[in-house]
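User: Can you predict the 3D structure for this chain?
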Amino acid sequence: MRRFLLIGVVCGLVAASASAQQDQSIVDRVTGNVPPVAASQVDESLPAGTVLVEVVDRQGGPIDEAAVRLGVMAQSGGRESQTCVTQADGRCRFDDLAFDSTHSYRVNVPFNGARYSSTPFRLDPSAGQRVRVTRLPTTTDDQRVFQVLGRTMIEFQADRAHITQEARLANLGDATYVFPEGGLKIELPPEAKAFQSRAMMTDQRVAGTDTELRISGSLPPGRSTLTWAYDVPVKGTSFSIEQAIPFQTMEYQVISDYIDGMSLEADGFAPAQVRERPDRRFLVTGIARRPSDPRIDPLRVEIRGIPGEGPLPYLAVGLGLVFLGLGAILTLRPSDETKQVAAARLERQRTLLDEIAELEADRGAERVGPTFYAHRRRELADELAILLRMQNEQSGH
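Assistant: Here is the predicted structure, written as C-alpha coordinates:
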Protein backbone atom coordinates (compact mmCIF):
# COMPACT_ATOMS: atom_id res chain seq x y z
CA MET A 1 0.00 0.00 0.00
CA ARG A 2 2.81 2.45 0.88
CA ARG A 3 4.37 1.78 -2.53
CA PHE A 4 1.22 2.83 -4.37
CA LEU A 5 0.82 5.89 -2.16
CA LEU A 6 4.36 7.01 -2.94
CA ILE A 7 3.87 6.47 -6.65
CA GLY A 8 0.67 8.51 -6.40
CA VAL A 9 2.48 11.33 -4.64
CA VAL A 10 5.20 11.39 -7.31
CA CYS A 11 2.66 11.50 -10.11
CA GLY A 12 0.76 14.25 -8.31
CA LEU A 13 3.87 16.35 -7.97
CA VAL A 14 4.60 16.17 -11.67
CA ALA A 15 1.06 16.13 -13.02
CA ALA A 16 1.54 19.56 -14.59
CA SER A 17 4.75 18.45 -16.26
CA ALA A 18 5.04 16.97 -19.74
CA SER A 19 7.32 14.25 -18.36
CA ALA A 20 4.90 12.78 -15.79
CA GLN A 21 4.33 9.85 -18.12
CA GLN A 22 8.08 9.30 -18.29
CA ASP A 23 8.27 9.12 -14.49
CA GLN A 24 5.63 6.40 -14.43
CA SER A 25 7.48 4.49 -17.14
CA ILE A 26 10.61 4.50 -14.98
CA VAL A 27 8.68 3.07 -12.04
CA ASP A 28 7.19 0.45 -14.36
CA ARG A 29 10.64 -0.58 -15.59
CA VAL A 30 11.95 -1.01 -12.06
CA THR A 31 8.94 -3.08 -11.02
CA GLY A 32 8.97 -5.11 -14.24
CA ASN A 33 5.59 -3.81 -15.35
CA VAL A 34 6.50 -3.46 -19.03
CA PRO A 35 4.89 -4.95 -22.13
CA PRO A 36 6.78 -7.79 -23.85
CA VAL A 37 8.87 -6.87 -26.87
CA ALA A 38 7.21 -9.69 -28.81
CA ALA A 39 3.53 -10.66 -28.69
CA SER A 40 2.19 -13.79 -30.36
CA GLN A 41 -1.38 -14.92 -30.99
CA VAL A 42 -3.47 -17.22 -33.17
CA ASP A 43 -4.93 -15.41 -36.18
CA GLU A 44 -7.88 -17.11 -37.86
CA SER A 45 -7.48 -14.87 -40.92
CA LEU A 46 -4.22 -16.67 -41.70
CA PRO A 47 -4.10 -20.17 -43.19
CA ALA A 48 -2.85 -23.08 -41.11
CA GLY A 49 0.92 -23.52 -41.28
CA THR A 50 1.60 -19.76 -41.63
CA VAL A 51 3.48 -17.40 -39.33
CA LEU A 52 3.09 -13.69 -40.13
CA VAL A 53 5.67 -11.44 -38.48
CA GLU A 54 5.25 -7.69 -37.99
CA VAL A 55 8.27 -5.65 -36.91
CA VAL A 56 7.49 -2.16 -35.58
CA ASP A 57 9.33 0.63 -33.83
CA ARG A 58 8.56 2.05 -30.38
CA GLN A 59 5.74 4.20 -31.78
CA GLY A 60 4.21 1.27 -33.65
CA GLY A 61 5.45 2.31 -37.09
CA PRO A 62 6.52 -0.45 -39.53
CA ILE A 63 10.22 -1.22 -40.00
CA ASP A 64 11.27 -2.39 -43.43
CA GLU A 65 14.31 -4.51 -44.27
CA ALA A 66 14.38 -6.02 -40.79
CA ALA A 67 15.96 -9.46 -40.64
CA VAL A 68 13.69 -12.11 -39.11
CA ARG A 69 14.65 -15.66 -38.16
CA LEU A 70 12.15 -18.38 -37.33
CA GLY A 71 13.54 -21.10 -35.10
CA VAL A 72 11.99 -24.53 -35.67
CA MET A 73 12.27 -27.02 -32.80
CA ALA A 74 11.29 -30.66 -33.21
CA GLN A 75 10.25 -32.87 -30.32
CA SER A 76 13.03 -35.27 -31.29
CA GLY A 77 15.56 -32.57 -30.46
CA GLY A 78 16.28 -31.41 -33.98
CA ARG A 79 16.59 -27.68 -34.65
CA GLU A 80 16.60 -25.64 -37.83
CA SER A 81 15.73 -22.10 -38.87
CA GLN A 82 14.23 -20.11 -41.72
CA THR A 83 14.74 -16.44 -42.53
CA CYS A 84 12.87 -13.60 -44.16
CA VAL A 85 13.17 -9.81 -44.50
CA THR A 86 10.33 -7.37 -43.83
CA GLN A 87 8.83 -5.28 -46.61
CA ALA A 88 7.71 -1.63 -46.51
CA ASP A 89 4.72 -2.57 -44.32
CA GLY A 90 7.06 -4.12 -41.73
CA ARG A 91 5.82 -7.65 -42.49
CA CYS A 92 7.14 -10.94 -43.77
CA ARG A 93 5.75 -14.46 -43.50
CA PHE A 94 6.62 -18.11 -43.34
CA ASP A 95 4.34 -20.62 -45.06
CA ASP A 96 3.83 -24.38 -45.29
CA LEU A 97 5.00 -25.01 -41.73
CA ALA A 98 4.19 -28.17 -39.79
CA PHE A 99 1.33 -27.67 -37.36
CA ASP A 100 1.47 -31.03 -35.56
CA SER A 101 2.21 -31.48 -31.86
CA THR A 102 5.86 -32.37 -32.47
CA HIS A 103 7.00 -28.96 -33.71
CA SER A 104 7.27 -25.60 -31.98
CA TYR A 105 8.45 -22.21 -33.23
CA ARG A 106 10.11 -19.04 -32.04
CA VAL A 107 10.51 -15.72 -33.86
CA ASN A 108 13.80 -13.83 -33.43
CA VAL A 109 14.64 -10.34 -34.68
CA PRO A 110 18.35 -9.49 -34.25
CA PHE A 111 19.38 -5.84 -34.22
CA ASN A 112 22.67 -4.14 -33.35
CA GLY A 113 23.76 -6.83 -30.89
CA ALA A 114 20.32 -7.34 -29.33
CA ARG A 115 17.82 -10.06 -30.11
CA TYR A 116 14.06 -9.56 -29.72
CA SER A 117 12.32 -12.92 -29.38
CA SER A 118 8.83 -14.33 -28.93
CA THR A 119 8.07 -17.10 -26.47
CA PRO A 120 7.97 -20.53 -28.17
CA PHE A 121 4.60 -21.52 -29.62
CA ARG A 122 2.94 -24.36 -31.53
CA LEU A 123 0.79 -23.74 -34.56
CA ASP A 124 -2.95 -24.22 -34.40
CA PRO A 125 -4.08 -26.89 -36.90
CA SER A 126 -6.88 -24.63 -38.18
CA ALA A 127 -5.28 -21.15 -38.21
CA GLY A 128 -2.01 -19.28 -38.55
CA GLN A 129 0.03 -17.31 -36.02
CA ARG A 130 0.64 -13.55 -35.93
CA VAL A 131 3.76 -12.30 -34.12
CA ARG A 132 4.34 -8.59 -33.48
CA VAL A 133 7.88 -7.61 -32.50
CA THR A 134 8.79 -4.15 -31.19
CA ARG A 135 12.37 -3.43 -32.22
CA LEU A 136 13.82 -0.85 -29.85
CA PRO A 137 16.97 1.22 -30.37
CA THR A 138 20.10 -0.08 -28.67
CA THR A 139 22.88 1.43 -26.59
CA THR A 140 26.19 0.34 -25.09
CA ASP A 141 25.97 3.02 -22.39
CA ASP A 142 25.23 1.34 -19.02
CA GLN A 143 24.48 4.53 -17.04
CA ARG A 144 20.80 3.62 -16.75
CA VAL A 145 21.37 -0.04 -15.89
CA PHE A 146 21.14 -0.74 -12.15
CA GLN A 147 21.43 -3.82 -10.00
CA VAL A 148 18.33 -3.34 -7.89
CA LEU A 149 19.26 -6.32 -5.73
CA GLY A 150 22.34 -8.53 -5.71
CA ARG A 151 22.79 -11.63 -3.58
CA THR A 152 25.61 -14.00 -2.72
CA MET A 153 24.54 -17.22 -1.02
CA ILE A 154 27.22 -19.42 0.56
CA GLU A 155 26.42 -23.06 1.33
CA PHE A 156 29.00 -25.37 2.90
CA GLN A 157 29.19 -28.88 1.55
CA ALA A 158 31.88 -31.10 3.10
CA ASP A 159 35.22 -29.71 1.86
CA ARG A 160 33.87 -26.93 -0.33
CA ALA A 161 31.67 -23.85 -0.42
CA HIS A 162 28.94 -23.63 -3.02
CA ILE A 163 28.57 -19.97 -4.07
CA THR A 164 25.33 -18.92 -5.76
CA GLN A 165 24.97 -15.35 -7.01
CA GLU A 166 21.90 -13.53 -8.25
CA ALA A 167 21.77 -10.18 -10.06
CA ARG A 168 18.37 -8.51 -10.39
CA LEU A 169 18.94 -5.85 -13.02
CA ALA A 170 16.73 -2.96 -14.12
CA ASN A 171 17.21 -1.05 -17.37
CA LEU A 172 15.56 2.32 -16.76
CA GLY A 173 16.32 3.72 -20.20
CA ASP A 174 14.29 3.79 -23.40
CA ALA A 175 16.85 1.75 -25.36
CA THR A 176 17.98 -1.85 -25.04
CA TYR A 177 21.38 -2.11 -23.38
CA VAL A 178 23.83 -4.36 -25.24
CA PHE A 179 26.66 -5.98 -23.28
CA PRO A 180 30.21 -5.45 -24.62
CA GLU A 181 31.38 -7.54 -27.53
CA GLY A 182 32.70 -10.80 -26.14
CA GLY A 183 30.65 -10.35 -22.98
CA LEU A 184 31.00 -8.41 -19.72
CA LYS A 185 33.92 -10.08 -17.93
CA ILE A 186 33.85 -10.80 -14.19
CA GLU A 187 36.85 -12.57 -12.68
CA LEU A 188 36.06 -15.44 -10.33
CA PRO A 189 37.92 -16.11 -7.07
CA PRO A 190 41.06 -18.27 -7.31
CA GLU A 191 40.39 -22.01 -7.14
CA ALA A 192 36.81 -21.58 -8.38
CA LYS A 193 35.47 -24.63 -10.22
CA ALA A 194 32.28 -26.34 -11.37
CA PHE A 195 30.72 -23.17 -12.83
CA GLN A 196 26.98 -23.33 -13.51
CA SER A 197 24.42 -20.84 -14.82
CA ARG A 198 20.68 -20.79 -15.27
CA ALA A 199 19.46 -20.86 -18.87
CA MET A 200 17.39 -17.87 -19.99
CA MET A 201 14.53 -17.60 -22.46
CA THR A 202 15.92 -14.21 -23.50
CA ASP A 203 19.21 -13.60 -25.30
CA GLN A 204 21.10 -13.02 -22.04
CA ARG A 205 23.81 -15.60 -21.47
CA VAL A 206 26.09 -16.23 -18.51
CA ALA A 207 29.02 -18.45 -19.49
CA GLY A 208 31.99 -19.24 -17.30
CA THR A 209 35.25 -21.06 -16.85
CA ASP A 210 37.24 -21.70 -13.69
CA THR A 211 38.73 -18.20 -13.89
CA GLU A 212 35.98 -15.88 -15.11
CA LEU A 213 32.39 -15.50 -16.20
CA ARG A 214 31.06 -13.46 -19.09
CA ILE A 215 27.60 -11.93 -19.44
CA SER A 216 26.50 -11.39 -23.04
CA GLY A 217 23.37 -10.47 -24.89
CA SER A 218 21.17 -7.50 -24.09
CA LEU A 219 18.78 -5.98 -21.53
CA PRO A 220 15.59 -4.37 -22.84
CA PRO A 221 13.86 -1.73 -20.70
CA GLY A 222 12.49 -3.42 -17.60
CA ARG A 223 13.81 -6.09 -15.24
CA SER A 224 15.95 -9.18 -15.74
CA THR A 225 17.41 -11.67 -13.27
CA LEU A 226 20.68 -13.50 -13.85
CA THR A 227 21.82 -16.43 -11.69
CA TRP A 228 25.07 -18.39 -11.62
CA ALA A 229 27.03 -20.59 -9.20
CA TYR A 230 30.47 -22.08 -8.61
CA ASP A 231 32.39 -24.01 -5.96
CA VAL A 232 35.47 -22.99 -3.98
CA PRO A 233 37.50 -25.44 -1.81
CA VAL A 234 37.43 -24.82 1.95
CA LYS A 235 40.68 -25.39 3.78
CA GLY A 236 40.82 -24.93 7.53
CA THR A 237 38.38 -22.92 9.63
CA SER A 238 38.23 -19.72 7.55
CA PHE A 239 37.12 -18.88 4.08
CA SER A 240 37.17 -15.72 1.94
CA ILE A 241 36.21 -14.62 -1.55
CA GLU A 242 36.81 -11.43 -3.51
CA GLN A 243 34.88 -10.61 -6.67
CA ALA A 244 34.09 -7.55 -8.76
CA ILE A 245 30.52 -6.21 -8.92
CA PRO A 246 30.30 -4.48 -12.33
CA PHE A 247 26.83 -2.96 -11.86
CA GLN A 248 25.75 0.20 -10.07
CA THR A 249 24.09 -1.49 -7.10
CA MET A 250 21.19 -0.29 -4.95
CA GLU A 251 21.09 -3.17 -2.47
CA TYR A 252 23.28 -6.21 -1.88
CA GLN A 253 22.89 -9.13 0.51
CA VAL A 254 25.32 -11.84 1.59
CA ILE A 255 23.82 -14.95 3.18
CA SER A 256 25.79 -17.84 4.66
CA ASP A 257 25.11 -21.11 6.44
CA TYR A 258 25.56 -20.71 10.18
CA ILE A 259 26.73 -22.94 13.02
CA ASP A 260 27.50 -21.64 16.51
CA GLY A 261 30.85 -19.87 16.54
CA MET A 262 30.87 -18.81 12.88
CA SER A 263 31.19 -15.14 11.85
CA LEU A 264 30.61 -13.33 8.55
CA GLU A 265 32.14 -10.03 7.46
CA ALA A 266 31.73 -8.16 4.18
CA ASP A 267 33.67 -4.93 3.60
CA GLY A 268 31.41 -1.91 4.07
CA PHE A 269 28.34 -3.99 4.95
CA ALA A 270 26.30 -3.91 8.15
CA PRO A 271 27.24 -6.34 10.95
CA ALA A 272 25.94 -9.82 10.14
CA GLN A 273 22.83 -11.02 11.96
CA VAL A 274 21.63 -14.57 12.66
CA ARG A 275 18.33 -15.53 11.02
CA GLU A 276 16.52 -18.73 11.90
CA ARG A 277 14.10 -21.14 10.34
CA PRO A 278 12.83 -24.28 12.07
CA ASP A 279 15.39 -26.40 10.22
CA ARG A 280 18.09 -23.90 9.28
CA ARG A 281 20.13 -20.94 10.52
CA PHE A 282 21.83 -18.26 8.45
CA LEU A 283 24.16 -15.31 8.78
CA VAL A 284 22.83 -12.34 6.80
CA THR A 285 24.40 -8.97 6.05
CA GLY A 286 23.54 -6.27 3.55
CA ILE A 287 24.14 -2.78 2.27
CA ALA A 288 21.87 -0.15 0.67
CA ARG A 289 23.26 2.51 -1.65
CA ARG A 290 22.16 5.51 -3.68
CA PRO A 291 22.81 5.94 -7.42
CA SER A 292 25.37 8.63 -6.66
CA ASP A 293 27.38 6.37 -4.31
CA PRO A 294 30.53 4.62 -5.59
CA ARG A 295 30.11 1.10 -6.88
CA ILE A 296 30.76 -1.92 -4.68
CA ASP A 297 34.16 -2.83 -6.04
CA PRO A 298 35.16 -5.42 -5.14
CA LEU A 299 32.88 -7.52 -2.95
CA ARG A 300 35.02 -8.96 -0.15
CA VAL A 301 33.56 -11.62 2.14
CA GLU A 302 35.27 -13.51 4.96
CA ILE A 303 33.81 -16.28 7.11
CA ARG A 304 35.57 -17.55 10.23
CA GLY A 305 34.91 -20.31 12.70
CA ILE A 306 33.97 -22.96 10.14
CA PRO A 307 33.78 -26.37 11.85
CA GLY A 308 35.71 -29.29 10.45
CA GLU A 309 34.26 -32.64 9.56
CA GLY A 310 30.95 -33.38 11.21
CA PRO A 311 28.09 -30.93 10.67
CA LEU A 312 29.18 -29.53 7.31
CA PRO A 313 27.84 -32.34 5.10
CA TYR A 314 24.40 -31.85 6.61
CA LEU A 315 24.15 -28.16 5.75
CA ALA A 316 23.56 -28.60 2.03
CA VAL A 317 20.00 -27.89 0.86
CA GLY A 318 18.39 -26.93 -2.43
CA LEU A 319 19.05 -23.37 -3.55
CA GLY A 320 15.37 -22.83 -4.36
CA LEU A 321 14.38 -23.62 -0.77
CA VAL A 322 16.99 -21.29 0.62
CA PHE A 323 15.92 -18.30 -1.46
CA LEU A 324 12.25 -19.17 -1.02
CA GLY A 325 12.58 -19.05 2.74
CA LEU A 326 14.86 -16.03 2.83
CA GLY A 327 12.09 -13.50 2.29
CA ALA A 328 10.15 -14.93 5.21
CA ILE A 329 13.26 -14.89 7.37
CA LEU A 330 13.91 -11.22 6.73
CA THR A 331 10.24 -10.28 7.01
CA LEU A 332 9.02 -12.34 9.95
CA ARG A 333 12.08 -11.88 12.13
CA PRO A 334 13.31 -8.36 11.31
CA SER A 335 16.35 -7.17 13.21
CA ASP A 336 16.92 -3.65 14.41
CA GLU A 337 19.32 -3.29 11.49
CA THR A 338 16.56 -4.16 9.02
CA LYS A 339 14.24 -1.60 10.62
CA GLN A 340 16.96 1.03 10.47
CA VAL A 341 17.56 0.38 6.77
CA ALA A 342 13.81 0.58 6.08
CA ALA A 343 13.57 3.84 8.03
CA ALA A 344 16.54 5.26 6.13
CA ARG A 345 14.92 4.35 2.82
CA LEU A 346 11.65 6.00 3.82
CA GLU A 347 13.46 9.15 4.89
CA ARG A 348 15.35 9.23 1.60
CA GLN A 349 12.08 8.83 -0.30
CA ARG A 350 10.63 11.83 1.51
CA THR A 351 13.74 13.82 0.71
CA LEU A 352 13.49 12.89 -2.96
CA LEU A 353 9.85 13.94 -3.09
CA ASP A 354 10.80 17.30 -1.57
CA GLU A 355 13.65 17.71 -4.07
CA ILE A 356 11.33 16.89 -7.00
CA ALA A 357 8.80 19.46 -5.80
CA GLU A 358 11.53 22.07 -5.33
CA LEU A 359 12.98 21.33 -8.78
CA GLU A 360 9.53 21.74 -10.36
CA ALA A 361 9.13 25.08 -8.61
CA ASP A 362 12.60 26.23 -9.72
CA ARG A 363 11.85 25.30 -13.31
CA GLY A 364 8.46 27.02 -13.20
CA ALA A 365 10.14 30.19 -11.94
CA GLU A 366 12.94 29.76 -14.55
CA ARG A 367 15.60 29.60 -11.83
CA VAL A 368 17.12 26.58 -13.61
CA GLY A 369 17.52 25.91 -17.31
CA PRO A 370 15.85 23.11 -19.29
CA THR A 371 19.03 21.02 -19.65
CA PHE A 372 19.83 20.98 -15.94
CA TYR A 373 16.15 20.42 -15.13
CA ALA A 374 15.83 17.40 -17.41
CA HIS A 375 19.08 15.83 -16.21
CA ARG A 376 18.42 16.36 -12.50
CA ARG A 377 14.80 15.29 -12.77
CA ARG A 378 15.78 12.04 -14.41
CA GLU A 379 18.31 11.35 -11.64
CA LEU A 380 15.73 11.95 -8.92
CA ALA A 381 13.06 9.89 -10.66
CA ASP A 382 15.48 7.00 -11.22
CA GLU A 383 16.54 6.91 -7.58
CA LEU A 384 12.97 7.14 -6.30
CA ALA A 385 11.86 4.31 -8.56
CA ILE A 386 14.71 2.12 -7.35
CA LEU A 387 13.92 2.86 -3.70
CA LEU A 388 10.30 1.91 -4.32
CA ARG A 389 11.46 -1.36 -5.83
CA MET A 390 13.78 -2.06 -2.88
CA GLN A 391 10.91 -1.45 -0.48
CA ASN A 392 8.74 -3.78 -2.53
CA GLU A 393 11.43 -6.51 -2.45
CA GLN A 394 11.69 -6.19 1.35
CA SER A 395 7.94 -6.32 1.94
CA GLY A 396 7.47 -9.22 -0.43
CA HIS A 397 4.73 -7.48 -2.46
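Residues 64 and 167 are 36 Å apart (CA to CA). The first strand starts at residue 38 and ends at 43.
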